[in-house]
Fold:
Amino acid sequence: MAKDAPSHEDDAVIVCRCEALTWGDVKQAMEAFQPTSLRQLKSVTRWGMGICQGRVCRPMMAATTVEDQTEAAFRLVVRPPFKPVAMNILGHEGEKV
Amino acid sequence: MRTEALIIGAGPAGLSAAIELGQRGIETLVVDEYPVPGGRLLGQMYQSQSGWWIGRRVAEDLLERLGRFPNVHLMLETSVSGLAHAGGGWTATFSQRAGTVDAQAVLIATGATEVPIPLPNWTLPGVMTVGAAQTMANVHGVRPGERGIIIGFGALAFAVADELTRAGVDLAGIVLPPLQGPSQWLGTVQDQWRRLRDVVHLGPRWARAATPLVASDFWLERVMAGAPQKGIPALGTVLRPNVAAIAMAGEEAVSGVWLQRVDRRGTLVGEPWHEAVDFACLSGGLRPVPDLAAATGAAMKSSRSGLHDVPIFGPVGETTAPGIFAAGNVLGIEGAPVAMAQGQLASIGVLRHLSGNPTEWAAEQAAFSRALEVARERAPLVFDRAWSQIHEEIRQAWTNRPKEG
Structure:
């Protein structure tokens, strides 16, 4: 069975499944927007903003080279809801379990 | 609903803490996302110094003991969606059920998550993390496929290779991950090879004899780069330390993997070749899930990659957030016996917070601390050498933390 040799293109590697972003998309955004922190990179690409909220892709983000290499530039804030909540559950906010 | 203690996570740490609190009459609610309690215990099966470790039996035993305490309640298929400081305690909200729970103390025992390795076509059906293959085989009794490959030298790679081959699943070996592009966080090829030092004792007897040889970087590089392309027999399969997976292949599902030889410097050399597999396990390692601790405002130790983000914690699992405690893999990646001792220690923290007496249960604390040391000494596997250093830094950060008043 003949097989095509694999593509090494950056566009062939998905890095954020939730938002269907490839490594090529990220590199392009890095060049076009030159974000100075991971938070800014998130804002311009939506990386880590899907249903997994970065739980799958967070370590891959460290492969990006933002200008500021301090830990602070790589810090991301956790905000509620920590997990997706159904609308009918939200409607009952304040009641006791 | 009101409770004295809310435990988030029904794995080895959370269940062990719940037993201690249950015994001492504390109203305790344990919540977990999964339909079955036990956490990662459910899939664990390995041989240790003291015989076989069957995680599912350990979980059954913990649950049986927990069942004796009517003051402990278990709520499954429940994710915490919010955790807010309110009225001296904490109010939790959940994603699958309406309403709130008010707790005086919260133990965060949310464990760890696996880190996948991105490579072309890794989103095809048949590509999974190594822990997913473990769950399929050991929890559900399902073969992940006919012939697989393990990509990456994460600690679970070797345990799962052993479990899968014992279950009669054919493996094409354990190979290097790609080390460029979005996989850069895995480090250099030398970093990957150094990881193998921690698992030499799991290999065949003759390989164990090589331990002194691979102790020096000089020889490690040469031994690994010079290994036969078909690999070194280990754990029922072969370790292929100088072969890297560069892409998965397939249309509707995985039908193969593209491999390429790697030289001493980690550079891809020669032509890539294709091997037929119908599943692949990605083993990028584990990282703590400290999101809830971070959201409470507890001081965190953070890392660029997020792989080593953990709350700063004290001797009985205290964080810097009042009434928030942590135990288990959320504090760093170690084995289940360590998590169990950490859970017991954190129960002391919770008890002291509830009573307001910071010195009670000293004898129990000493016993649980000793159990933690023993669990660490007897650990069959070091998951990541970084953790002992990080824990030392945290001990110092805890001692030097700014104190209230």
User: Anything to note?
Assistant: The CA atoms of residues 38 and 61 of chain A lie 7 Å apart. Chain A touches chain B through 47 residues (CB under 8 Å). The first helix of chain A runs from residue 23 to 33.
